[in-house]
Every structure is written in C-alpha cells, then in structure tokens.
TrEMBL record, chains A, B:
<feature type="site" description="Important for enzyme activity">
    <location>
        <position position="307"/>
    </location>
</feature>
<comment type="similarity">
    <text>Belongs to the FAD-binding oxidoreductase/transferase type 4 family.</text>
</comment>
<dbReference type="Pfam" id="PF01565">
    <property type="entry name" value="FAD_binding_4"/>
</dbReference>
<dbReference type="GO" id="GO:0016491">
    <property type="term" value="F:oxidoreductase activity"/>
</dbReference>
<keyword id="KW-0560">Oxidoreductase</keyword>
<dbReference type="GO" id="GO:0008610">
    <property type="term" value="P:lipid biosynthetic process"/>
</dbReference>
<dbReference type="Pfam" id="PF02913">
    <property type="entry name" value="FAD-oxidase_C"/>
</dbReference>
<feature type="binding site">
    <location>
        <begin position="123"/>
        <end position="129"/>
    </location>
    <ligand>
        <name>FAD</name>
    </ligand>
</feature>
<dbReference type="GO" id="GO:0071949">
    <property type="term" value="F:FAD binding"/>
</dbReference>
<dbReference type="InterPro" id="IPR004113">
    <property type="entry name" value="FAD-bd_oxidored_4_C"/>
</dbReference>
<dbReference type="InterPro" id="IPR016167">
    <property type="entry name" value="FAD-bd_PCMH_sub1"/>
</dbReference>
<dbReference type="InterPro" id="IPR025650">
    <property type="entry name" value="Alkyl-DHAP_Synthase"/>
</dbReference>
<dbReference type="InterPro" id="IPR016166">
    <property type="entry name" value="FAD-bd_PCMH"/>
</dbReference>
<feature type="active site" description="Proton donor/acceptor">
    <location>
        <position position="454"/>
    </location>
</feature>
<dbReference type="InterPro" id="IPR016164">
    <property type="entry name" value="FAD-linked_Oxase-like_C"/>
</dbReference>
<dbReference type="GO" id="GO:0008609">
    <property type="term" value="F:alkylglycerone-phosphate synthase activity"/>
</dbReference>
<keyword id="KW-0285">Flavoprotein</keyword>
Length: 538, 538
C-alpha cells in the first residue's frame, strides 16, 4: 500500500504525529515548573527486555513474535502512567510473546495451548486502554502472550435490508468505516480513540461513542456476537430483540477479555447522515446550564451531540474564553431534515438563559443546503478533542501530568460531585505536586436520569515521580466518586487500575456470579488475569 | 376500601368479568364444531387438593396459607393450557403453601428456610405467565412454596429531579400508575397483562411494553435493582449509565426467578404525555406494508406505536374487514408537539402505497387541542386488545383452542417466516384437530433490524384433549421458529414451556455461565427449578 505510517510504541497514535522536542518545550512552557528538557524517546532497537519465559509450540510459531518492538508496544495501554513508564524504559511487564492470529482458528489454537501451558493470554485490540486493561506481569503463570487481533480487520458482510454488518473484532475505526462507506453506511461510533482502537476493544470495554444521548455505548448496536472461550465458541443468534432469558451478549459486553475473545459481531449500522445541524450556547451559571441539559436529556429529542463544557474546558479547547459554560448541540438524520428538532433544542437553551452563539436566524431555517456545521465553537472543540492525546504525550515528556477520568451520576448529585471533584482535586494536586493544578470538566453523554462527566487533570509532575504522583491524585478522585456513588467508569472500563473502586461498586452477589462464570468459561484462568476479578492465586 | 373485586382463580383477570355461560355459548357459536356446553367452572371451595407435603416453621406461619383457593390460584399461570387444566380440575401441581411476604425481610426468611428444608420456591407476581413460569410439581423437593409478592405493592419514593421512582416488585400495573399519577408521572409500561401483572414479574421476564420502538422491553427503564438471593442481597447503584464490567442488572433481567427474587427497583419514569397523535394506514399488500414499517423502524422517528395487523388480525379486532393490512401509528411527547413527526410517518406510509385512513387534513395540523386519538381503527384495536383474554377463556370453556405466541426476526426473514407460520400452522391445526383453524399476526414491536411478530391461533379443540392438542400445535410452531432462527420468545419469557426452543437458541457457552451463576447464587437449587435451566436431579 506504500506510505505506511508507523504507530508509536510508547505513546499515542502515529509516530510522526508526536510532538517534536521543540514542540514539547514550547507547549511545556505554558505550564510553569515543568522539566527543562523533554524525556528522550527510548530507541526501540535498544530496549533491554528480559528473555521470554515461554515458547510457543511449532504449529503456533508463525503467529508469534518475540521481537522487542512488538513486546514493548504490547506492554501497556495508553494511560498517562503507561506513557511515563514507557518513556522511562520501565518494561518489566512486557509480554513474552505477541500472537497475531489471522483467523478464528488461530485464536482457538492459542487459547488451547495457553490453557495447557498455563500461559496468560491478554487480548489486545488497539491497545488504547487507559485503565491497565492490557498489562499483566504474569506472576503465577508460565508466561504472558499478548493476543493482538489486528489481522482480523475485515467487514465480512454488509446486509442492507437489516442495516447490519458482520465485522471482525480487530478492525480499527477508520478501516471499518472505509469498508462500510462505499455502500453508504457507517457504524458511527467515534470514541476519542477511534483511530487507534478496534471493534473488539469497544465491545469488550463497553466503549462510549458518537451519540451523546440514547445509544451512548457500543452495546446498543450489537445484534449478535461471536466469542472464543477456552471451553468453546459462543455465538448468539442475529435477533433484533429477544426476551429469552438474560441476554448472552450482555455478559460478554464489558467482559474485558476475562471471559473470552470476541472475534466478530453483527453490528447495527447506520445510513450516512444527510441532514446535520449544530449550534452552541453559552451560559453564565453552572446551575442554569445543567438545568438546560437536563431538560434536553428528558425531552425525548435525543440529540446526537449534547456536550457541556465547563469554563476551564471551554477555554482549553478554544471554544470560549470568558468564563462561561458552553453547550454544543448537534442533531442529525439520514432520513429527514432536523431543523425542527434543532429549533426545539435552541428554545430549551434560551429558556434556561443560554445565549445561542454564532447562530444567525438563517442558520435555523429549513435550509439544508450546507449540512455541515457552520458553528466555529463546535469545530474548534472537535479539533482539540482529536489533538489532545498527542499534546498529553508532549507534556508527559516535560513531566507534566495530564490525564482524564470519567464517571456518571444522577442529576441531583452532579453539582455537588462537580464541586467536590474540582475543589478537592485542586487541594490534592497542590499537596501531591506542591503546585496548583487544573481540573476541567465536560459532560460527554447525558441520560434522562443523569449525565456522564469527564474530567481532565493537569498538574506539574516531578521528574521521576510522575506516575506515582498521578496514582495518588487518581486514588483521591476514585474516593470522591465512591463517596457520591458515581460509577467508577462510564466508558473507560475497569481493567486493573479501577479494580478498587469497582469492587466497592459491584454488588457482591454479582461478583459471585461473575466469578462462577469465569471459572466455567476459563477453568485454567488464563484470560486476562486481574481485570474485573482478582488474578487467581497460583 | 369496599367494593373489592375478586380475581379469577382459574382464568384471566376479574371473576366478574369472565364470560357467562350464555356468553360462552354465543361466542362459541361463531366457531363451528365446538362443544355444545361450556365447561363448568369448578367450585373453589370443593377443590380436592393433596395435603401439603411441608409445613413452615412457626416464625413463618403468619405469612403462609395452605387454603385450597390460594393453592389453586397459584398452581398455574394463564396460558391456554393452564386455563384448560384448571377448568378440568387438574391441580396435581398445586404448591403446598403460598407465602405472602410483607417486606424484604420476610423474603429473606422464606429463602433461608426453604434452602435448609429443601423446599422449592416459585416467585409469583401477578401469575400471568403464559410459559409455565410459575408451575412446579416439586419432584425431588420436600415441597413447593409459591412466593406471592403482591403485598410489596408500594411506590416508595418518587424522585422528580432524576425522573425515577423506587417501586416494590409486587406492585401491579394499575396500582403503580395510581401512585405515580398524582405527581404527574407514569411508568408507561403497558403489556397486555398490565392490569394483572407486577413490576417484579415484568423485570424477571423482560416484559414488552407500551413503546413499539426504541424502549420496547422493561429492561431499558431500569436504573437499579434489588434482588434477594439465597447467598445475599444484590443491589446495584443508581446510575444513569455505566461501563463498569458486564451489567449486573442485565443478569437478573430475564432471570425468571431462577437466580433471585426481585424485591424493588428504581425505575425511570416519564412525565405524562401532553401531545399525542395517532393514525392508521391500510395496505393492499404485505410486501409494501412491511417495507413501510421497515422504513419507519430505520428512520429514527421512533414512534411510540407502530403496530402492523395482518388482514385476519385486522378483521378480528374490527379495524378493517376488507382483507387489507392495517398499520396503527402513534407519536407522543410530554415535551413538545408531535405533528411534524406524525407528518413524516404519514409520508412514509403513503410512499409505500398506504392509504392513510380517517386522517382529515386538519388532523395533521399543528393543533393539539384534542390530544387524544380521533382514529377509530386504533381505538377499536385497543379495546379488542384488552378484552381478548376474557374472550379466550370463554372460548376455552367451549373447548376452543385460542392461544398466542410471539417472536422476533430480521427483516429479510419476516415474509418467509410469516408465510411458513401461517401456512404450516394451518396444516398442523387441520391435522391435529381435524378442522381448519385460524392464524393471525400482528407486529407488536419493531427495530431497525427486524420486527417482533405476534401470532394468534384459533382452532377447534376436542373436549378433554384441548391442552394436548395445543401442545402439538405449539411444538410445530417452535420448530418453525427454530428453523428460521427466530427467537423462541420476544417478551413472553422462557419458563418451562419454551425450554426446548431456548436450549437450541442459547449458546452452550452462555448456558455454562448461567448454570455456574445459578449454582453460585442458589447453591441448594431452590429457586424456580426448571425455568431457563433443567431442574437439578435430586
């Protein structure tokens, strides 16, 4: 195909899109107190990894790599602490082998061997986990294989009548969309990691996507799933709806590779939207902005986009710099004009004191001549959204601490949660780092009974202690969420990092059922040990 | 409260609403070949039940009844075969005791005793199961207790900010709505059994409700659930959304009393709709009617009502008698006028050759002066819908066979499925009964990837063999569904009657997980043995 771009082994995305040393310095200069020079990026060819503890049988060797670059790039996800550890060359947890199955039979064979050999298998899609979902040191096991599904990258069938597609789990967002586009379809699932994450990863982690309301998680688009487990392959029937017992798919959605390896799914796809409208509104007060969003979430209008940015987030993303809250609203349809819906949304925003920005009267007319948004705030926000992970890595190289966490809570608790997170996190950051930090918030998804706030944290790290400092800050954040009975994660999954909060949140009775299911489907306990449940004592 | 109506112990609903002997005769005369006189209704005081095999300890005796009427009315659900067997006085499977807990502690105590005493516990809401969900003979157990939750009938809290209510599982539809109405709210979940079924029953069976699109099952309205299991109480947090592992609630939704006893739930409620519009359209051809419904289901308009009646069903319900297909459409909102949405739906119906009936031009104007439907076809249909179960019992008393089953399948298979069911069932009915029967169909719920057809069967039974004849007919129906890989149930649950089809449909790997979960939560296997999974060999 020529012109292949190379993925960064240590940080986000494409190697050639990473900040240069000069950019790191320039960007880092915005935050006082950072390091005077960026961390150098370790030379991938000079990585000093421990010798592999295990060797695959001959039949599997064609799938396996023990090349240092493969092992290094499969050691961590892409959390802040992952990037820091990679930059510092801390790769003790590198998997012994990376397996690249080409088809489902390969997956079955790897699991069979691993079960016998007591080798842990860590399913790996795009490796964009920010919760330690793909990191396992292998304690108690004969070794660790990272099972990279990226060769299962095809859209196998498109079914226009039922508007569904059978898609392999290793397909990345762009490749999947490229294969749907010629037929006029789209999955329309755009997590921030879209470019560097896979369908299987989205399903295994209950990814949050494009739609801010209604169909927020990938879960809602699943028609049927195929999952390889150590005791056999599970395939649910293609059904638009069913009431036959507890949903089989819902057991595997969010199972994070601990119950099986998702190999493909029939997904409900969309026709590409023909009608799109977007506006933004600004509010002087949090209370009124939240009231507007709550009314929208309970109105049944179900806008595709409904993101509320707090003043810090608005300033950071360039949408508004005057201390106001910014609400970005979007409606879309493949079927009919959406002007009426937009007008109703605008009415709600105005009724709660919102000033609808950059919305000329003509922009809410029935004209759909220009379906793309003309709203600059929304465009700025989107651009910042996609650039953010590279900027995070640039600041990380300067020992800046830049990380996010998200949750969901009910409307009655959102203001207190927001206040506590921003206030207490400010105090914790000051205590941990000795310098003031910054905590911003946006609501990424909203429901009739509450919103999903997403917090961004910036703080001044001390060279060499960045990851430990972040861990202290994050632990405080998790405590605040637990206190408010807000979920430990809305769409970043549990992995290993969220286990303490998850253990508090999850009903013990359900833990017993999940543990029993795990023992039934993965008797040797080889699948992603330590996510969701404790790694078995061996 | 005075004026208490009495529930029928043998048939549907209120005793005083059952057909009289004269009505049975008159109604039965419409079907040639039925019995010449209705089955007499057995005298409840003269029922000859076996002596109870077990006795509750003294502490539980205030909750327990062994009165014949209690035992008889808790022997069966309300399937056709249940009504016939009750009419014929076949009550061998009567539970030994009926427990009426007044609070959750009572439920815990009953399960504790039953676990020790090896007594099977059959959770019982309204007893409207049509799949053998509440019937267990007790083989291998020391006895059977029917656990009637109807005293847990209160709305405990209404939370207007988050638009949610905490509701006890034993609350029947009307009582629950009565408690929400003064605050302007509604759960708006109206299964056909609404009057005689409970929230807990809806949750345990994944009931299908009011909305024909989008939020079709009760599942979508659950914010959190509280479930008593033999190993402890499970309570999920009140969260608008979460991505923390597989959903705990989704394990209990559809668990049919086999994993635990649901005692209460926080449910997402609705403001009462202020804007409602309804129309009907008729189509000469199935193919075009289905194409219209498919476009509607894929349009994103998400009408509250979208029910397609085949010509037989339309005639039966009095909506149309001229051999056409009738589509009943309804839109509603508590927030904004719905005329625009209705206009778009009407456009779709017309584009596919539908004739929009009884829709004067003014009726699609912006006027909302009369929010109630003015469409007679829709009103007729609704009335027939609610009267149907009493008519079924009237015909059952004349040895008519009247029963329903439902499924869901993808759009590409719906016409073949419909043709096969109507044709082959006709042949089976003729073979089994020696007389022609009638098979009607309506689509009750629709999804972007397929509809949920609901079939009604009428046939001439032979006195004394009615239930066996229906069993033969139903077995043929299940085979057709399996052949088309259509679900064994869309919203009637699995119970004991659907087990063969469910076993074929359910992935074996998921069965292993469910079996393991059951063993973990109900180690003594006392909970509703035989639903979803085989009753343990003892």
């Amino acid at each position: 195909m020529g012109n292949q771009r190379t993925r960064s082994w240590w940080g986000w995305g494409w190697e050639d899109a990473a900040f240069s040393d000069e950019e790191c310095l320039a960007y880092g200069a915005r935050m006082p107190g950072l390091a005077s020079a960026p961390y150098p990026v370790p030379d991938a060819r000079a990585l000093d990894l421990a010798a592999p503890r295990t060797k695959a049988p001959q039949s599997l060797q064609p799938l396996m790599s023990d090349a240092p670059l493969d092992r290094a790039s499969h050691t961590y996800g892409k959390a802040y602490r992952d990037v820091i550890r990679a930059l510092r060359g801390q790769l003790d947890a590198a998997p012994d082998l990376v397996a690249y199955p080409s088809d489902e039979a390969d997956v079955v064979n790897v699991l069979d061997w691993a079960t016998t050999a007591e080798v842990a298998v860590v399913p790996f899609g795009g490796g964009s986990s920010v919760v330690g979902g793909v990191e396992f040191s292998g304690e108690g096991y004969a070794g660790v294989v990272s099972l990279d599904l990226s060769r299962l990258d095809r859209v196998l069938e498109i079914d226009p009548v039922n508007r569904a597609a059978r898609i392999q789990a290793g397909a990345f967002g762009p490749a999947l969309e490229d294969q749907l586009r010629p037929d006029g379809y789209t999955l329309r699932h755009y997590p921030q990691s879209f470019e560097f994450s896979t369908l299987g990863g989205w399903l295994a982690t209950r990814s949050g996507g494009h739609y801010a309301t209604l169909h927020t998680h990938i879960d809602d688009f699943v028609e049927s799933m195929r999952v390889v487990t150590p005791v056999g392959i599970s395939e649910s029937w293609r059904l638009p709806g069913s009431g036959a017992g507890p949903s089989p798919d819902r057991l595997f959605l969010g199972s994070e590779g601990a119950l099986g390896v998702i190999t493909e799914a029939w997904m409900r796809i969309q026709q590409r939207p023909q009608f799109r409208r977007s506006v933004s509104a600004v509010f002087a007060e949090a209370t009124r902005a939240l009231a507007a969003v709550r009314e929208i979430a309970q109105s049944g209008l179900n806008p595709a986009n409904c993101r509320l940015l707090d003043p810090g987030e608005a300033a950071m993303s360039g949408t508004s710099g005057d201390g106001q809250w910014v609400l970005v609203l979007g409606v879309e349809s493949a079927h009919h004009p959406v002007d009426d819906a937009l007008n109703l949304l605008v009415e709600i925003a105005r009724a709660h004191g919102g000033t609808v920005a950059t919305l000329a009267p003509s922009a809410v007319s029935a004209s759909e001549a220009k379906p793309e948004t003309r709203d600059q705030a929304a465009a700025n926000w989107r651009s910042a959204f996609l650039r953010m992970p590279y900027a995070r890595d640039g600041l990380a190289r300067m020992s800046g601490i830049v990380e996010t966490f998200e949750t969901a809570t009910t409307w009655d608790r959102i203001e207190a949660l927001y206040d506590d997170v921003t206030t207490e996190m400010g105090e914790v950051i000051a205590k941990v780092t000795g310098a003031p930090g910054r905590v911003n918030c946006r609501l990424t998804h909203v429901y009739p009974d509450g919103p999903a706030p997403y917090f961004s944290v910036m703080a001044t790290g001390r060279r060499g202690s960045e990851a430990a400092m972040w861990d202290d800050i994050k632990a405080a954040a998790m405590d605040i969420l637990t206190r408010h009975r807000a979920t430990v994660t809305h769409h970043h999954a549990v992995g290993r990092d969220h286990r303490p909060g998850y253990d508090r949140q999850r009903p013990d009775v359900f833990a017993a059922a999940l543990t029993a299911s795990k023992a039934a489907l993965d008797p040797a306990g080889i699948l992603n040990p330590g996510v969701l449940l404790p790694a078995p004592k061996r």
